[in-house]
Amino acid sequence: MSGINREARQIFAEIVSNKKVGAYHHIVFSVGELANSAKPGNFVAISVGGQNSAMVLRRAFAIYRTFDRGASGGLLEIVVAPHGAGSIWLTNQLPGFKVDLVAPLGTAFGIPTEPVRALLVGGGYGSAPLFGLSEVLKSRGCRIDMVLGASTAMKIYAPLDGKRSVNSLTTVTEDGTTGITGKVTDVIPGIIETNQIDIIYSCGPMGMLEAINVIAQERGVVHQCAIEEAMACGIGVCMTCVLPIRGEDGVIRMLRSCIDGPVVDGGSVIWNSKRTIPEGTWGRN
Amino acid sequence: MFDFKTSLGQANFENPVFTASGCAGSGKELSQFFDLAELGAVVTKSIMLKPRSGRATPRMAETPSGMLNSIGLQGPGIDLFLEKDIPWLRDQGATIVVSIAGESVEDYAILARKLRAVSGISALEVNISCPNVENRGQVFACHPTTARAAIEAVRRNIGGELPIIAKLTPDVTSIVEIAEEVISAGADSLALINTVLGMVIDTNTMRPKLAGKTGGLSGPAIRPVAVRAIYQVHEAMPHVKILGMGGVASGRDAFELILAGASAVSVGTATFGNPTAVIKIKEELRAELISHGFDSLREAVGYAHRPEGNL
Questions:
Q1: Angle, helices B223-236/B251-260, rounded to nearest 10 degrees
Q2: pTM of this structure
Q3: ipTM of this complex prediction, to 2 decimal places
Q4: Do B66 and A6 touch (CB under 8 A)?
Q5: If I label A60, which of A7, A260, B190, B198 is the partner at 20 to 30 A Cα–Cα?
Q6: How far is it, in rounded angstroms, from Cα A195 to Cα A26?
Q7: What is the CATH number of the domain that holds B48?
């Protein structure tokens, strides 16, 4: 799952549409052939703020989905939560505006060769890349259960056409404004048991991924998750977005979430190591 | 024809635009966006004696026109670096400047010995902006005596040919004093400037944002500091070649450092925002120099120092 994404290209991409959906913005870019090379789990890094901006770093967004549209050119879609100066700037751009975009970046969700029973768990707009994933899994004959959670109904991202490819959808909100009141982890154990889940795919806040990982480990379920860490470059040169991850050789290394992730095996991540380098990490000093 | 060639000490370069140490890894990640041979040089990430995990996260905070980083020199160590990265860079046809960093004077000496017989390296950048474990973690480059000791250790062990570029921090009372000290200790040229020490406090958690608490500020925010440091050092030692860096994001910015006295320019943080920034800046700089009527890069070096009254 690791290594430089050789498909990555830098292009100027025109915004085709930009619509507010609940608490988020759904933005579509015209990206030409680049749409063919993106896989569920990959991300895109976009320059924000315009030419003389004081924001010097790109912003990374999980790719929601891509469309290969032949002669009319491919489309790439993202879902943006406007919460910082950069994402707010991007959500304010109108169709016709061109952004500097690098994609596809990072690792993709691993797709099983046999039909399996998959549980897809998304937190907030972390649900976005799971819909493209569910399309791929469905085409491989997988059974797909989906759980989407957020603090409140407005922050659940679940478009109608995205829901078509899943067998069941459970929504969970902390304030009970839609679906079950609670957290995604309240419902996951029951679904694993009832539907005999083989693999969990998750995307969302790190705390949620960690809690899902505990459940997956206890029940021996494979867990692939899309992680996130403060990132400056998105292409593997700045070394800021690292996480302690145990390799197949048993050695813990500080790996880049942009190159060796964002999709990683949840069982390999040393969770809850914030602000420390875990004991035994390669080169710990 | 316009002459873009430059030199640092005895090392010659086809053009004056380099990557900055720590902002291009060992070149692999950038090579999918452009041909590394197009660069004046690839300056590698500062390499240390042993593998190093670096600091915990968060390691990064964006700031107005810049960013703060606290990586802690994560890297594979010199042996793996020589085995894997150098042969790969040679295969790319890249001009290579190796950056080294040590925790003790002895580290610098050993690193120099390991590098002296390696072929395909054009120069050595000695990053002395690292904590000295033998001196309460004080940074080598902050004191004339420790700066001298580190550079002397490299000079004694590197052998005859390989030029030494001493990389200095601007976080000192007099950068000219440190510059004079490292040149007299055997450095051939200078790299100015390293990042500026800073801190960001997260007003939600009400604690320093970076796990390492302090970090190095880079990006356009520090460019005036770089221009000042280069100008002062060039004024004091006009014969010493300078590799300038600090917030260069355009050809205009690179030109500004050259006017201050830089003979070559490294591009760092701009690469994080734009993987092809180095190539863009190289082309813009060429156009900038030509549009100002220069026939060669060399004529423009330190041009801001010309006497009043001269055009």
A1: 30
A2: 0.95
A3: 0.93
A4: no
A5: B198
A6: 32
A7: 3.20.20.70
